[in-house]
Amino acid sequence: MHRITNESNLWLNAVKMEEEGNFFEAFFLYLKDAAESLQKNLLVRAALCCSCAANCLSITGNLAASRQLYLQTAMLYEINGDSIIGESVREALWSYKECYEYYHLACDSEKTQVVYDKYVSLTRRINPFQGEEEAMKLMSERKKATNATKNDITQTNMQISAQVDNAMENILKTIESIYTKNNSEESNSESTQYEVKKFEKSLIN
Prior knowledge:
Blueprint: H1 2-5, H2 10-19, H3 23-39, H4 43-59, H5 63-84, H6 89-105, H7 109-126, H8 131-152, H9 162-187, H10 189-204
Helix pairs in contact: 2-3, 3-4, 3-9, 4-5, 5-6, 5-9, 6-7, 6-8, 7-8
């Protein structure tokens, strides 16, 4: 209880700043929370923090910077999906759905397609008869919702301030490093076979 109400709680302070309209202050707190979450390997929490920080920047009209953070958010969800697939198919699918949405917000069509294929492939294996059709319908609905969100983002030529740039630099490098490592492990045939075996076992369970 003390942790939830403590003034040192980065998340609650960030939310408070955002609700009061102090979007830049909230942005810095969200990023700090994301950095601490990454140190603890809390990928979903870090992704949530990055998405909230991106939302704060988009509200202030800083579209370029917000897209960078939406991209990092998507990468974290993709890493989580890839790493959890052998333990929980449901969480993997949820992670890929979130990932798909944020890649779309980041306007990265190539990665959006990659994660779309991952989601549909996984759903097809779970339900060979209707899985693919249901997955395609769901992803289409998510895309429409994301398009509506993108239309609400104010477009501007505002440059990234030095403070914002410096705050983003370290966390972007950290996430890029984790993402690169994840892709490297995925390309390893032994690692891939191990995850497939865990996945098939989880279907039985």
